[in-house]
Amino acid sequence: MQRVYAFNEGTAQMKDILGGKGANLAEMTRLGLPVPKGFTISAKACLEFLNHGEVLLDELKAEIDQYIQQLEQDTGKKFDGAENLLLVSVRSGAKISMPGMMDTILNVGLNDHTVETLAQETQDYRFAYDCYRRLLQMYGNVVFGMDGSKFERILDQHKKAAHARYDSDLTADQLKAVIADYKELYLKEIDQPFPQNVTDQIYEAVKAVFRSWNNDRAKYYRKLNEIPNDMGTAVNIQEMVFGNRGESSGTGVLFTRNPATGEHKLFGEYLVNAQGEDVVAGIRTPSSIQKLAEDFPEIYTLLNELVYKLEHHYKDMQDIEFTIEEGQLYILQTRNGKRTAKSAFKVAVDLVKEGVITKEEALMRIEPSAVNQWLHPTFDSESLAQAELISNHGLPASPGSGTGQVVFTAKVAKEWAEAGKKVILVRQETSPEDIEGMNLAQAIVTSHGGMTSHAAVVARGMGKSCVVGVDDLEISEENKTVIYPGGELHEGDLISVDGSSGKLYRGEIKQSFTSTDESYATIMEWAEEVSELKVRMNAETLPDIQTGLAFGAVGIGLTRTEHMFFKAERLKEFRSFILSQKEEERQAALDRIQAYQEEDFEKIFRALDGFPANIRLLDPPLHEFLPAKDQDIELVAGQQGISAQELKSRIHNLKEVNPMLGHRGCRLGMTFPNLYLMQARAIMTSAIKLVQEGLEVSPEIMIPLVSTQKELAILKEKIVAELDQMIQEAGVELAYTVGTMIEIPRACFIADDLAQIGQFFSFGTNDLTQMTYGFSRDDAGKFINQYIENGVLETDPFQTIDLAGVGELVRIAVEKGRQANPNLKIGVCGELGGDPKSIMFFNQVGLDYVSCSPFRVPIAKIAAAQATIRKQEK
Ligand code: PEP
Ligand code: MG
User: Fold this and answer.
1) What is the pLDDT of residues 353-372, one digit of tens each?
2) In this predicted model, what pLDDT tens digit does every residue of 529-580 receive, in sequence order?
3) For an engineered disulfide with 555, which of 365, 421, 491, 611 has Cβ 3.0 to 4.6 Å away?
4) H helices within 655-764, ranges in order?
5) In angstroms, rounded to a whole number, what is the distance separating the alpha carbons of residues 503 and 495?
6) DSSP secondary structure string for all residues of 243-309
7) pLDDT of residue 396
8) How far apart are CA 399 and CA 497, in angstroms?
C-alpha cells in the first residue's frame, strides 16, 4: 500500500486518501500555481496508526524518509543541512474540512545548529530565533501536550521586561533568552529536552497530528456536523515559506467573495512580516485585503488572477491562504469557503448568472438546513460561546431560538405574555389545551416526549423554537422549579432555548435574524422548476396556511381537524357529544359543531384558491377531549349539567390502557358514523358555497388509521352517498376524492386492496414508525438518545426515515397500491415529509408529494429539487 504521495502525484478527486487540503494542494500543483513543494501522508496511514497501538510502522517511516529526500532534491535544499536549509510545516487535513480542530506544527527541522544556519543564510538572527521559539512552542503543545499558556506567559514576561509591544519588537538576543526559558519549561514539565534530531521531529509531529484526529474538540466537531469517525486525517508535509522575513513579506487569508453577504469582491486580511497563525490569532490588527493593492500592487494583481483561476476551476467561492516571502507569492491552501445562508444563496445565483455553474449545480450547493437561518432568528455565535449551558440532552424539535422567562403553565404563559413579558413555556409535556400558551411563548421546552410528541409537532407547525425530551431536567410544575444537574431554575428566571441544537442556556442571549431577498426567491423558483415531488403543508389555521403559501406550498397535505375542536366553545359542544347519553342530544351537539366546521373549511378553501386541501376526519381518542385535573372536572361537569362524580365515571369508562392503539382514527368513524358524516357534510357545504361563487375547490377527504379494506369501504360508501346527494341537490360540478392514511404496517401489506377503494394514500409516518418499531412516539424520548449514543440506532427514526423497516413498508405499499390503481395519488404527511434525507427516499419510490409544517416548506422544496437532480444523475 502506498502511504505517501508527492503533491505532483495527486488530484482534487483523491480526497479520501489525501484529505481535502492535500488533494487541493495536489490539484493546485497540477494547475501550475505557486505552491511550496511537499507531500501528503494518507488518511489510511492515520487509521493504520490509530488502530495498531499508535506506532509508526517502519514501512511508513521508510516512505517518509524517501519523500523527504525527494523534497530535498526538488527544492535544492537540505534538511538538517549546514547550508540551503530545508524546513517544513506538518499540517493536518481530513477529507471534510474541520477548521482549527486538529493540529499543525510549523518550522519543523530547526534545532540548536540549524537555527544558526538559518540565521546566517538569511542574515537575520531575529527572524531565525523567532522561528525557533515558535517551533518550541507549537511542538511542546502539540506533541507533548504542554499547556500553551505557559509558553505565552514566558513570552509576555520577556516582552514586558523589554518594553516590547509586539512579538516582532523583540531583538535576537531577547528571543534567545525566551528560547532558553522555553527549554527550561520542557525539562520542568515533561522531564526531557526538546528533541534535536530533525527526523525524530518529523516522526513525532506526524504521530501527534494523527492523534489529533481523536482530540476532544475534533470529536465534538464531528458529532456536531455528522462527520464519520472512521476517516482519519491526512498529514501534509510542505516546504516552509516565510511571511516573517521582513517588510517585503507577509501572510494572509482571503475569500473570493464575501462569506457573510455573498458580495462579489475579495474579502480578507493580511499582515506584513508575520507567520502562519498570526492573522487569525489577532495579535496585531491585520489590514484589509484591498490595502494589498497599495502595499504590493504587482502581487495584488497576480493574486487576483490566481484567485479567479481557482474559483473557475473549483466553480465555487474559495477560502485561500497565501504567503509572500520576500516579494514572492505562494498559495498555501484553497478550499470551498464556509458561508452564511445569505451568502450561499447569492453566490450560487451569481455563479449561474456568470455562466460558471448550471441551475442544477446551484441547487445542489444549498445545504437544506441552511434555509433555517433565513426563517428563524438564531443566537449570535459570540454571545452563545459565553453562555452558561443548562442542558444538552434535548432533542432539537423545532429550529430557531427563543429567550424569555420560565413559566410552567400555559395559563401563566398567556397572562405574562399578554402583560408584555417574553416567556418560555417549560413543561413535562404539553397537551392540546396548552396551544394558546404555546403560541404566545417565545419557545417551548419539555422534559418528556420525542420528535413527534405533541409539543414538537405543534411547535413546528407554529414555526416556534422547541426542545423536547430534555431528560436531565426535573420539572415540578407544582413547586415551579426545574432542577438540572448544574443548578435550579424558578418561575421568572431568564433562559435561552436553541431549537436547532436542542441546547438550553441560562440568561438572555442576543439573537439575529436574516430577511429573505432576491437570491432566495430565485433559488426557490428554480427548485420548483426542477422538482418531481410537490411540496404541500400540514396546516389548519389561516396564519399557518398563509405562511405555507408564502413559502411556496402547493396545497394542504394534512388538516388535523381535531385542532379545530380545542377552542373553548367547540370543546364544550364536543364534550356534550361525547358525554350525553341521548341520541338527539348527541346529534344536536354535532349539528352545532358542523356550523363551526363549515366556517373553518370555508376559510381554508378560500385561502387555498383551488390548491388541493387534504382534510383528515377526526383521529385522536375521545378521552383527550375530557378534563384530567380535579378542578377542571368540577368546571366541565358544571358546564355539562352533570355531577362531577358522573363525569369522573364517564372519563374512567373512556380511559384506555394504550390509547394510541385504541379507540381512535377510523375506529371512531365506525362506531360513531354520524361524527364522520358531520365532518364530510361540513366540508361539502363550504365547498359547494365556494363553487357557487365561481371559485375553485379541490377537497380530499382522508380517513385515518385504516387497517382493513372493509373499514375503508364502509366509511367511503357512507360518505360518498351523502356527498353525491348534496352535490346533486346543489346542481353544481364538484370533484372531490376520498382516500386513506397509511399508518399501520398491515395497511402497507394490503395496499392493493385499499387502493381499489381509496383514491389516494397519504403515509402517516409518525404512526407508521411508532407501530413498526413498537416505539411509543410520546415515550421514546426516554431511550432514543442513549440508543443513538451507543450506536444501537444510527438516527432517530421519527426524524429520518428508517429505510430498512419503515422505508421498506412504504415501498411495498406504493408498489402494491399503484399496481391495483395506477391513478392513485400518493403523498406523505408525517414529520418525515420535511426531512431532507427522507425526502430523497420519497422521491426515489415515486411519491407525488411531501407535506410538512409551513416553516419546513422551503427546506422541503430545496430537498425535493436535490432529490430529483440526484435521481436524474443516476
Ligand atoms: C402521522 O401519524 O404520521 C400523522 C401525520 O398523523 P398524526 O401525527 O396526527 O398522528
Ligand atoms: Mg397519525
Assistant:
1) 999 999 999 999 998 877 87
2) 999 999 999 999 998 999 899 889 999 999 999 988 888 889 999 999 999 8
3) 611
4) 666-671, 673-692, 709-730, 745-749, 751-757
5) 11
6) S-SSTT-EEEEEESS-TTT--SS-EEEEEES--TTHHHHTSSPPEEGGGHHHH-HHHHHHHHHHHHH
7) 85
8) 10
> Which atom of ligand 1 lies nearest, measured to the CA of 829?
5
Q: Does the Cβ of 460 fall within 6 Å of ligand 1?
A: no
Please tell me the distance from the alpha carbon of residue 546 to that of residue 645, in angstroms, as a whole number.
44
Q: What is the CATH number of domain 250-339?
A: 3.30.470.20
Q: What are the residue ranges spanned by the domains of the chain? A: 250-339, 378-512, 531-621+656-873
Number of the ligand 1 atom closest to the C-alpha atom of 762: 5
Give the contacts of 56 (CB within 8 A, at least 6 positions apart): 49, 203, 206, 207
Whether residue 357 contacts residue 327, with contact meaning beta carbons closer than 8 Å, is answered with: no
Ligand 1 probe mutation, 564, 705, 829, 851, most atoms within 8 A of CB:
829
With beta carbons less than 8 A apart as the criterion, state whether 320 and 307 touch.
yes
79: which residues sit within 8 A by CB, 6+ positions away? 68, 71, 72, 86, 88, 109, 198, 199
Please tell me the residue having the least CA distance from ligand 1 atom 8. Answer: 766
C-beta of 765 in contact with ligand 1 (< 6 A): yes
Q: What is the CATH number of domain 378-512?
A: 3.50.30.10
Is residue 278's pLDDT more than 70? no
Annotation marks residue 829 as catalytic: yes
Query: Which grid coordinates belong to 595?
Result: 356550523
Cα dist. 260→257, 276, 375, 519, 583 in Å? 9, 24, 16, 14, 65
User: 666, 748, 829, 852: which one is catalytic?
Assistant: 829
pTM of the model: 0.78
Q: Residues near 767 by Cβ (< 8 Å), separated by ≥ 6?
A: 660, 705, 741, 743, 744, 777, 830
In the residue annotation, 748 being an active-site residue is answered as: no
If we measure between CA atoms, which residue out of 823, 817, 818, 780 comes closest to residue 802?
A: 780
- Say how far apart CA 346 and CA 517 lie, in whole Å: 9
Query: Cα(622)–Cα(672) distance, rounded to whole angstroms?
Result: 11
CB-ligand 1 contact for 218 (6 Å cutoff): no
The residue whose grid cell reads 530547526 is 110
Distances (CA, A) of 4 to 12, 24, 60, 761: 16, 16, 8, 56
Q: Active-site residue among 158, 393, 454, 623?
A: 454
Query: Which residue numbers belong to the known binding site for Mg(2+)?
Result: 743, 767
Annotated binding site for substrate: 560, 616, 743, 764-767
**Protein residue whose Cα sits closest to atom 4 of ligand 1:** 764
Q: Is the CB of 461 under 6 A from ligand 1?
A: no
Quote the CA–CA distance of 208 and 212 in Å, as a whole number.
6
Choose the weakest-confidence range: 88-92, 453-457, 519-523: 453-457
- Residue 769 CB–ligand 1 contact under 6 Å: no
What the block records as the C-alpha cell of 86 is: 530545508
Grid coordinates of 126: 531575529
Pairwise CA distance, residues 505 & 497, whole Å? 6
Query: Looking at ligand 1, which atom is closest to the CA of residue 831?
Result: 3
CA atoms within 13 A on the CB side of 173: 2
pLDDT at 281: 52
Q: Are 719 and 701 in contact (CB under 8 A)?
A: yes
pLDDT confidence of residue 792:
94
Distance between Cα 285 and ligand 1 center (Å) = 56
Residue with the three cell numbers 504590493:
296
Whats the size of the chain, residue-wise? 874
Return the bridge partners of 494, or none: 405
Of the options 2.160.10.10, 1.10.3720.10, 3.20.20.60, 1.10.3710.10, the CATH number for the domain spanning 531-621+656-873: 3.20.20.60
Q: Cα–Cα distance between 529 and 172 in angstroms, integer?
A: 66
Give the pLDDT confidence score for residue 508 in this predicted structure. 92
